[in-house]
Design brief:
There is one protein chain. This protein has 428 residues and is α/β, with parallel strands linked by helices. Helices cover 30% and strands 25% of the residues. It contains twelve helices and 19 strands. An eight-stranded mixed beta sheet has the order 6-5-14-15-16-13-18-17. Strands 8-2-1-12-19 form a five-stranded parallel beta sheet. A three-stranded antiparallel beta sheet has the order 3-7-4. Helix 1 links the parallel strand 1 and strand 2. Helix 8 packs antiparallel against helix 9. The two termini are 42 Å apart. It holds the Pfam family FAD_binding_3.
Length: 428
């Protein structure tokens, strides 16, 4: 049986451990922080990723901590509707789409790893500092100053680097990959306790990227206060801001953004009030890393954000990591040579995910708001069909969904593939 070391115990690393355990392995996880806490804000879990969670045997637990997505609607900065589509089962997918607090998702996976592999499978407070590999295995070194009881060195047959956007494993394998790509855009990510918006399962995409920036709103927890209110996640993109630290946990106030969307009249949502009532707000520079030319190097490979850090547009980052986890577990279980198994895992995944990295850099499906802004001259319109036909919007969403691995099940040929030129720039 292979001795597998996973570096990182975020959602991706924990999911990898669970998938490997399903294939008969008993991996060990090593995490930098001394205590795992439910940090972060919201994540959008697409139907193909809900499938992965279901196959892990965790759907009921996941359903209990998340909110079902019912519809996704795009609006201009004035509050005029551009395009809407159903989500998950409501669109005909076999699995639903759900919104969840990232920290709650991580703790759910953490609990499952402890129950299935044992608490001893995870070593906290130990930061990977480097490794060397030879023909028989990998020697991994740790800074264990935060946990002197943890080992300073281990041996493993293979190592999977799942240590996030600032991956030490990636930097050792590909030193040139440390160069990040800053978009010039800063994200403000907050949560507010408030009454449900529309049907309580809506994700709103609001604003324009030229005049005021953009806003995404969706619920991540039902009845959070016992009075029927939801915990609502919101993300604002603002351009021309200085680059800050590449850290998801920089807490800030909301004064800079509370009046940005005062021109947007939705009728069912007071955006300014939602922002001012935020329970917490975090700052993060919109950063990704250039697509990697290689993930697997002998007995060491990369997975999740360490392999394909992407802008959080289109909601595919953690979802793709869950697919990575299943794929690597299947390859290691069916290919006797672990080096070859890691190569096959990379062959299955890298090219597909690199397309999403670049498509997300080019706005992903959010590009429809830019199209409308440019064609309308930044002014309200009388009829959206005159400037952005539904058929064209459907073609854009159909292409993106298919590339992400979730072709629209109810889609017919009436969208005329090829009639509209692709808007996703993948050569940047």
């Amino acid at each position: 049986m292979l001795d597998i070391a996973i570096i990182g115990a975020g959602p991706a690393g924990l999911a990898t451990a669970l998938r490997l355990h399903q294939q008969g392995f008993r991996p060990r996880l090593f995490e930098t922080v001394s205590e795992l806490k439910p940090l972060g804000v919201g994540v959008d879990i697409k139907p193909y990723a809900v499938k992965e969670i279901t196959e892990m045997g965790l759907y009921d637990a996941f359903r209990a901590i998340s909110v079902e997505a019912k519809e996704s609607v795009f609006y201009t900065g004035y509050g005029q509707e551009i395009f809407g589509e159903k989500c998950g089962r409501h669109m005909g997918y076999e699995y639903d789409q759900r919104f969840v607090h990232r920290g709650h998702l991580q703790m759910m996976l953490y609990k499952a790893v402890q129950e299935r592999l044992g608490a001893e499978a995870i070593t906290l407070g130990t930061r990977c500092t480097g490794f060397e590999q030879d023909a028989d295995g990998v020697t991994v070194h740790f800074d264990n100053s935060a946990n002197p009881a943890a080992p300073a060195t281990i041996r493993a047959d293979i190592v999977i680097g799942v240590d996030g956007i600032r991956s030490v494993v990636r930097s050792k394998l590909l030193p040139e990959s440390s160069r990040s790509h800053f978009s010039g855009i800063t994200l403000y990510r907050g949560v507010t306790v408030m009454p449900p918006v529309r049907e309580g399962g809506t994700i709103l995409h609001i604003g324009d990227p030229i005049r005021q920036g953009t806003l995404i709103v969706y619920p991540i927890q039902d009845n959070v206060d016992g009075q029927g209110n939801q915990l609502v996640n919101w993300v604002i993109e603002q351009g021309e801001k200085p680059q800050s630290e590449e850290d998801w946990n920089q807490e800030v106030g909301v004064k800079e953004i509370e009046h940005v969307f005062d021109d947007c009249q939705l009728g069912f949502l007071d955006i300014g009030e939602m922002i001012r009532n935020a329970r917490e707000c975090y700052l993060f520079p919109l950063i990704d890393h250039d697509p990697l030319p290689q993930w697997s190097f002998g007995r060491v490979t990369l997975l999740g954000d360490a392999a394909h850090a992407m802008y959080p547009r289109g909601g595919n980052s953690v979802c793709q990591a869950f697919v990575d986890a299943r794929t690597i577990a299947e390859r290691l279980a069916t290919i006797a040579d672990p080096v070859e198994a890691l190569k096959q895992y990379e062959n299955d995944r890298r090219e597909k995910v690199n397309w999403l990295v670049l498509a997300s850099r080019g706005e992903g499906p959010e590009v429809v708001r830019r199209i409308v802004e440019e064609r309308s001259g930044g002014k309200p319109f009388d009829d959206i069909e005159d400037i952005f036909p539904h058929e064209e919007a459907l073609a854009i969403f159909s292409e993106y969904h298919a590339k992400a691995g979730m072709k629209i099940p109810t889609e017919k040929d009436s969208s005329q593939p090829g009639k509209y030129k692709s808007v996703f720039a993948v050569n940047q």
